Structures are given as structure tokens and as C-alpha cells.
């Protein structure tokens, strides 16, 4: 009978249970996705040049475990808030505490285990999907990655079984110890703690000062090294906490003093709600802001590495394709590239000399890339006259020759003298296309054909990377692992943290319902109530998001040694995060409204 009553209660709250279940599924799925990386040392070592990357990911796994634990605690609190009145009614009807404890244990544990199993399956699908998206759409080179990983599955299962087992025991113990009257009434309204104005002012100054020190150290990371990182980490974490515990509450107190603002509509109610919420949410919002910054930073840096592949590739060669002995190549394949520049230079060679026609280079100068300071580069053109007299210039042409030709002398002749040489004529064809990335597959085919026509280019002989495609392959292999990990981790952390914030808000919705119902009874219009809760929840989402963005903007200074322009194209990851964050905001508003707002009466 008790089981039937429990199932009936769960059925009546099916929407809330679906939200809870889906949230737990997402938590398990993300944890599994991360573990497929963190527990796969072969993947980490083969896709990174940083020797400590395995240790870094183990630390990341611990961090994600802590976040997951916090997430489940808030989700569990949401569950208990929903069900405690039902349990109180069961006890009033004569149910024994021991039976209630068993019922709570089974509900919590089996909901958690079911969510874990479904979450692992979801994680496998998501891992495979992310892998396909990043590898094929972004043309990354990623090795030793498999979405199905037994070690990750075992770690995820053990972790969640332990957590839900402990949560089930705690829930059962907590509920049976509470008096029936406490179970029947909703959670008490939080009592606002009276704050010392002096302490609030000191916290405000401390928060701003600590963030300033942390941001300054990020700018000076190249000067102070690891010391700057340690100082920045400590000061920014403390500064973030003081911002929420002091600065935001200080600003709200100032807003409440403005009669025009506070007395307009339900603004005073919203400001009062935020005051006691922020005191309760200080640690949560601080964590959300910090990990939001890490997540957004991971995606931003990942995209930065993607751009770095293109920039470093462009710095290797002006020409997108170099064809040695191009007389062996059917030009129909070349025309498929729709080249914007297609130049061929005739050449002949003896045992110790390579001959060119000087007038061909005067008519169509050789285009080269010259490196500047700070990783910058510029493009120049060398005429035949310059190549004939400047050794540095002739070395640029030498890099485009076959390995066996690079050690020979270069001689530039007139057309008649060149024609008088008895050796066979070959050609060096240099091609530029409109967009290297979109023509990559066709260029790869011609590079392979060029190696087939010139066997000495195979293996490790072509160390000069005269082919832009070869340079692209090297840089893509070097940076793809970082880009893959950045996307993977950034999106995982964002989903988890937004869900944490959502459940933290929903877990207190039952106590908030009383206040909204009181406002409704004294005549507050429904649209005003909806506006008030949107502002309240919007502030709780907006403030950590803005602070996290500031952390990222200053934190990117630390990557200037790795990325030439870390802020270029920053709008894209910011846009992705903003869209996902707004979706979570609207989902939270919808769920919260369904709990706290009075039901609309049908006319």
C-alpha cells in the first residue's frame, strides 16, 4: 500500500521527476565523457606535447567529481523538498518510520542508479558525436580516442553508486528524524542575517582589490612565472567570494535606498529576495563564476589554437601547392583547384648545378614569406635579378626544390643560354588558391601525386616543409589535441554548472511559493509576479556570468606566449556560451514559475 502511495505521488509530480532524472542523466553523461579523456593516458599523451597533461587531467577529474557531488546534493535537496510533505502525510496515516526510511532509500538509490546507467549511454553517444563533430567538421587529427572506454564506465558507475548510496542513507535518516509537523509545512522562510555596514564596506573594498591584484598578475605572468599564477589563483578565488558576499549585497542595499527604483512595481520585493538569496548562494555563485570562467576559457583557447593552425601554416609558404617536375602532372587536376595564381619556372640540372631562366622570375617574381619579430611575418617578392645576386633570396627558392637539388649551385641564364644546355627541361609549378582550407582535399591528392612522381620526397627527406599541406598536417597534429580537449571540457563544465545553479534555485522554490501566493492574494497581477521572478533569477544567472567573462578576458593574457592573437574571434565562444546559458535561464524560469506562481483559473 505504501509503495502504491509513493508511486502515485511520483506520478503526480512526474514533470518534476523528469527534470530531476534528466539532470542526473546529464551529470552522469558529462562525468563519463570527461573520464573517457582523463582515464585514457594513450589519448592524452598522443595528442599533447605537454608531459604533465595526464596529471592535469587527473586534477580536472577530481574537480569535476567535486562539482558533480555539489550538483547531486542540490538535485537531492530538490527531491526532498518535493517529497517531504508526502512523507509527512504517510506518517500521519500510520506508516512506520522504518518503512518510510526504506521507501526513501529505495526511491533515492534506484532513481540515481537508473539515471547513471542512462547517463553513461548518453555519455557514449555524446562522446561519439563530439568526436565526429570536432574531427570531421574542424578537420582535427585526434588519435587513440574511443567513446566506449571500460575504465571510464567503471569509474563513473562506482562514483555514482557510492554517492547515491550515501545520499539515500542521509535522506532516510533526515526525514525520519523530523517531526511530522515540520514535514507537513513548507520550508521556513530564510531569515535575513543583519550585516555590519562597516564589514560590508570592508568586504566590498577587499573584493575589488583582490580581483585587481589577480588580474594584474595575469598580465605579468611572463615576468613572474608560476608565482604570478599562484597569486592570481588565490586572489581571484577570494575576490570572487567577496564580490558576492560584499560587493553585490552592497550594491543592492544602495538600490533599495532609491525610492524611485525600489518602489516601482515589485522591485523592492525582488531586491529583498536577492539580499537573503545571495547570502545563502555566496559559495555557489562564487563556484559558478570561477568554473564558468574555466569553461569559457577552455573553449576560447581551443578556438585560439584552431586559428593558430591557420596562421602558422600561412607563415611557412606563400604558395598553397608546390609541384616538382610538374610536366608529369595532368594539368586538368590543377585546374580543378581554380587557382588564383599558377606559375611555372623551367629548370635544368647537372650533377652540381640547377639552371633557371632569369627573365621568368623578372616577369613573375618569386613570392616568399619572411619572419619578423614576435612571431609576425610579411610577404615579399624576389625578381630574377635579385635571386641571381642575393644568396638569402636564392635560399628561398632552394627551399622549394627537391632535396637532392638543394645542395647544388643555382645559376640564372638568359633564355638562349638556357635553351643551349643539352639537359632535359623540367618545371617547378607554384600554385595559390583562393581558400586553402576549402581546397584541402584536392591539394592533398596533388601532394600525394607529387610524392609519387618524386620518390625522394617520401619519408623524412622533406624536412623543409616546402609544401604548405605538410606544414598544415604538422601544426594540425600539434594543436588539435588542445582544441579537442578545450571544446570537450568547456561544454561539459558549462552544462554541469548551469544545472547546479538551476537546481539550487529550484530547491528553494517551495518556500518562495508562500511569498508569491501572498502577493497574489493582496492583488499583485500575474504579469508583475512573472516579471519579478524573471528579474530575480536573471540576476542570479547574470552576475556570475559577467564576472566569469571578466576572468576570461584578463586570463587570456596568460596565453600570449602560445597564441599570437588570443582575443581574435573571441565573439564565437562567447556567443556559444551565451546561447546555452540563456537556454538554461529560460528552463529555470519555466520550472520555477510552475512551482511558485498560483495556477491560472480557467474562465
Automatic annotation (TrEMBL):
<feature type="transmembrane region" description="Helical">
    <location>
        <begin position="148"/>
        <end position="170"/>
    </location>
</feature>
<feature type="transmembrane region" description="Helical">
    <location>
        <begin position="198"/>
        <end position="218"/>
    </location>
</feature>
<feature type="transmembrane region" description="Helical">
    <location>
        <begin position="54"/>
        <end position="79"/>
    </location>
</feature>
<feature type="domain" description="ABC3 transporter permease C-terminal">
    <location>
        <begin position="61"/>
        <end position="179"/>
    </location>
</feature>
<feature type="transmembrane region" description="Helical">
    <location>
        <begin position="570"/>
        <end position="592"/>
    </location>
</feature>
<comment type="similarity">
    <text>Belongs to the ABC-4 integral membrane protein family.</text>
</comment>
<protein>
    <submittedName>
        <fullName>FtsX-like permease family protein</fullName>
    </submittedName>
</protein>
<keyword id="KW-1133">Transmembrane helix</keyword>
<dbReference type="InterPro" id="IPR003838">
    <property type="entry name" value="ABC3_permease_C"/>
</dbReference>
<dbReference type="InterPro" id="IPR027022">
    <property type="entry name" value="ABC_permease_BceB-typ"/>
</dbReference>
<keyword id="KW-0813">Transport</keyword>
<dbReference type="Pfam" id="PF02687">
    <property type="entry name" value="FtsX"/>
</dbReference>
<feature type="transmembrane region" description="Helical">
    <location>
        <begin position="224"/>
        <end position="255"/>
    </location>
</feature>
<keyword id="KW-1003">Cell membrane</keyword>
<feature type="transmembrane region" description="Helical">
    <location>
        <begin position="537"/>
        <end position="558"/>
    </location>
</feature>
<feature type="transmembrane region" description="Helical">
    <location>
        <begin position="284"/>
        <end position="305"/>
    </location>
</feature>
<keyword id="KW-0812">Transmembrane</keyword>
<dbReference type="InterPro" id="IPR052536">
    <property type="entry name" value="ABC-4_Integral_Memb_Prot"/>
</dbReference>
<feature type="transmembrane region" description="Helical">
    <location>
        <begin position="17"/>
        <end position="34"/>
    </location>
</feature>
<feature type="transmembrane region" description="Helical">
    <location>
        <begin position="484"/>
        <end position="506"/>
    </location>
</feature>
<keyword id="KW-0472">Membrane</keyword>
<feature type="transmembrane region" description="Helical">
    <location>
        <begin position="100"/>
        <end position="128"/>
    </location>
</feature>
Amino acid at each position: 500500500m505504501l509503495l502504491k502511495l509513493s508511486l502515485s505521488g511520483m506520478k503526480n509530480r512526474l514533470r518534476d521527476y523528469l527534470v530531476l532524472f534528466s539532470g542526473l542523466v546529464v551529470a552522469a553523461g558529462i562525468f563519463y565523457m570527461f573520464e573517457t579523456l582523463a582515464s585514457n593516458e594513450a589519448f592524452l599523451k598522443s595528442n599533447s606535447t605537454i608531459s604533465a597533461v595526464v596529471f592535469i587531467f587527473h586534477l580536472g577529474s577530481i574537480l569535476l567529481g567535486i562539482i558533480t557531488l555539489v550538483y547531486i546534493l542540490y538535485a537531492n535537496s530538490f527531491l526532498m523538498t518535493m517529497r517531504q510533505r508526502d512523507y509527512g502525510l504517510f506518517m500521519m496515516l500510520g506508516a512506520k518510520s522504518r518503512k518510510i526510511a526504506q521507501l526513501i532509500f529505495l526511491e533515492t538509490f534506484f532513481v540515481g542508479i537508473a539515471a547513471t546507467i542512462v547517463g553513461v549511454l548518453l555519455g557514449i553517444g555524446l562522446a561519439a558525436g563530439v568526436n565526429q563533430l570536432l574531427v570531421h567538421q574542424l578537420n582535427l587529427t585526434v588519435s587513440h580516442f574511443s567513446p566506449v572506454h571500460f575504465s571510464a564506465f567503471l569509474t563513473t558507475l562506482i562514483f555514482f553508486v557510492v554517492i547515491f548510496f550515501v545520499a539515500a542513507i542521509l535522506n532516510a535518516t533526515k526525514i525520519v528524524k523530523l517531526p511530522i509537523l515540520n514535514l507537513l509545512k513548507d520550508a521556513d522562510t530564510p531569515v535575513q542575517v543583519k550585516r555590519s555596514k562597516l564589514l560590508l564596506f570592508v568586504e566590498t573594498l577587499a573584493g575589488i582589490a583582490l580581483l585587481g591584484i589577480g588580474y594584474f598578475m595575469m598580465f605579468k605572468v611572463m615576468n613572474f612565472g608560476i608565482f604570478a599564477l599562484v597569486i592570481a589563483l588565490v586572489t581571484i578565488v577570494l575576490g570572487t567570494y567577496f564580490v558576492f558576499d560584499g560587493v553585490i549585497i552592497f550594491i543592492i542595499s544602495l538600490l533599495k535606498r532609491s525610492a524611485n527604483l525600489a518602489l516601482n512595481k515589485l522591485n523592492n520585493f525582488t531586491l529583498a529576495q536577492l539580499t537573503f538569496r545571495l547570502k545563502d548562494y555566496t559559495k555557489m555563485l562564487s563556484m559558478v563564476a570561477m568554473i564558468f570562467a574555466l569553461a569559457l576559457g577552455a573553449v576560447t583557447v581551443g578556438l585560439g589554437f584552431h586559428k593558430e593552425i591557420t596562421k602558422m601554416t600561412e607563415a611557412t609558404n606563400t604558395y598553397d601547392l608546390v609541384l616538382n617536375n610538374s610536366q608529369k602532372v595532368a594539368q586538368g587536376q590543377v585546374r580543378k583547384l581554380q587557382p588564383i595564381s599558377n606559375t611555372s619556372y623551367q629548370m635544368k640540372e647537372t650533377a652540381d648545378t640547377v639552371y633557371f631562366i632569369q627573365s621568368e622570375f623578372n616577369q613573375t617574381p618569386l613570392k616568399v614569406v619572411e619572419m619578423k619579430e614576435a612571431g609576425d611575418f610579411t610577404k615579399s617578392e624576389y625578381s630574377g635579378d635579385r635571386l641571381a645576386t642575393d644568396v638569402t633570396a636564392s635560399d628561398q627558392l632552394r627551399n622549394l626544390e627537391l632535396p637532392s637539388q638543394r645542395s647544388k649551385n643555382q645559376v640564372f641564364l638568359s633564355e638562349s643560354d638556357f635553351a643551349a644546355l643539352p639537359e632535359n627541361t623540367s618545371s617547378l609549378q607554384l600554385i595559390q588558391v583562393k581558400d586553402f582550407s576549402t581546397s584541402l582535399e584536392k591539394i592533398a591528392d596533388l601532394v600525394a601525386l607529387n610524392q609519387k612522381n618524386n620518390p625522394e620526397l617520401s619519408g623524412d627527406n622533406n624536412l623543409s616543409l616546402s609544401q604548405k599541406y605538410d606544414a598544415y598536417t604538422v601544426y594540425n597534429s600539434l594543436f588539435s589535441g588542445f582544441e579537442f580537449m578545450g571544446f570537450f571540457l568547456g561544454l561539459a563544465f558549462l552544462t554541469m554548472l548551469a544545472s547546479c545553479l538551476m537546481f539550487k534555485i529550484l530547491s528553494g522554490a517551495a518556500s518562495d511559493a508562500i511569498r508569491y501566493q501572498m502577493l497574489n492574494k493582496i492583488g499583485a497581477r500575474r504579469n508583475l509576479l512573472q516579471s519579478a521572478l524573471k528579474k530575480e533569477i536573471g540576476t542570479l544567472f547574470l552576475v556570475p556570468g559577467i564576472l566569469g567573462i571578466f576572468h576570461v578576458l584578463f586570463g587570456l593574457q596568460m596565453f600570449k606566449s602560445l597564441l599570437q592573437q588570443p582575443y581574435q574571434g573571441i565573439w564565437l565562444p562567447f556567443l556559444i556560451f551565451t546561447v546555452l546559458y540563456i537556454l538554461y535561464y529560460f528552463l529555470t524560469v519555466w520550472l520555477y514559475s510552475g512551482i511558485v506562481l498560483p495556477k491560472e483559473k480557467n474562465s
